[in-house]
Amino acid sequence: MDWKTFQALLSGVNKYSTAFGRIWLSVVFVFRVMVYVVAAERVWGDDQKDFDCNTKQPGCANVCYDHFFPISHIRLWALQLIFITCPSFMVVMHVAYRDDRERKYRAKFGDDKKLYTNTGKKHGGLWWTYLISLFVKTGIEIAFLYILHHIYDSFYLPRLVKCEVSPCPNIVDCYVGHPTEKKVFTYFMVGASALCIILNICEIIYLVFKRVARIAKKYKRHNRNKHFQHDDYTNDNFNNYNMIVPKGKMADKPPSFKNVGKSPPRLEVLGTDPMIRASAPNLSYQCS
């Protein structure tokens, strides 16, 4: 495996990651890839030759090794590292797709026009792509831990195994090479994998909480603007013709729209002024 190419590809993911994503990437490189390349490959380098059985029966040692170690730790961890980093390339591919759309949009409408304010900003579809990649990485980590736990019985590596698989003539004692050293590396890699799962869960919670906070802030700002518009409406004298005004101020106020077209009562016109009453004709008598 070309780990330099592998590192170069993942370095592009780092600039689109959150703080938790950068910590996860550091843990993967320092505590998993470096340990794998520097130490673990040498410990499991020629594991089958170090698997020694107390019989010379042809094929017995090979069959017993395949029975107790159906897949080597080192190859299983290599597959795990490849699979957990593949979802991160989904984010890189999505950003590349955005960059291509942005380039075509500017070529069509001019360089001063923008389709995205920032193609690497986690909004819209890119946010969902990033979140799905976190769920996929977490699921892959858990799946490989379960496989390792199921195959090797709680990550335990014994010093001696008893094999009675054909073509072994009877119960054969087989000895595992470097059992303590392999056990230490196994626990270390399992712990690093568990740490990566915790970081992925923290990043999922962080992204969801940040998204909910942004939506709540936007909703609150929308309600506040709506309230300000309502206040401006209630302070408008033209629209508030139903407001109760004291009688002392009625003389200073223009007539209400409700009273437009209504003639005042006759008694209000005549009032109690004697000159007006005296000048009014008496219509109470009928001509005979």
Q: Report how far apart the termini are.
A: 130 Å
| Global shape | elongated
What is the β-strand count? 3
Number of helical stretches of at least 4 residues: 8
DSSP helix fraction = 55-70%
Strand order of the largest sheet: 1-3-2
Please summarize the sheet with the most strands.
3 strands, antiparallel
Structural class: mainly alpha
Give structural attributes.
three-stranded antiparallel β-sheet, 288 residues, disordered C terminus, mainly alpha
Describe the structure.
By secondary structure, the protein is mainly alpha-helical. It is 62% helix and 3% strand. It contains 8 helices and 3 strands. It has helices at residues 3-14, 19-43, 60-68, 73-109, 125-152, 179-234, 266-270, 274-279; strands at residues 52-53, 160-163, 172-175. A 3-stranded antiparallel β-sheet has the order 1-3-2, with helices on one face. Strand 2 (160-163) and strand 3 (172-175) form a beta hairpin. Helix 2 packs antiparallel against helix 4 (73-109) and helix 2 runs antiparallel to helix 6. It is elongated and about 90 Å long. It starts with a helix and ends in a 9-residue tail after the last helix.
